[in-house]
Write a structure and sequence with these properties.
Layout: H1 17-34, H2 43-59
Biased composition (Basic and acidic residues): 51-60
Region (Disordered): 34-60
Organism: Bradyrhizobium uaiense
Amino acid sequence: MTMTMTKIDNDADQIDHKTCRYICDAVGERLQQSMRPEPALSSRLQQLLDEMQRRDSDRR
């Protein structure tokens, strides 16, 4: 399904740049509050990733 944007011809229905910026900032802040940071890798998994990167570097 494709979404299309339509242009509003009536200027009374449009919002100004300042209001648009305020809304975008508010949505961004709300998203940051609701999103949890990714958990840290376990030490064993980090060791394995480091080893894999080392071996990959050695092959080059």
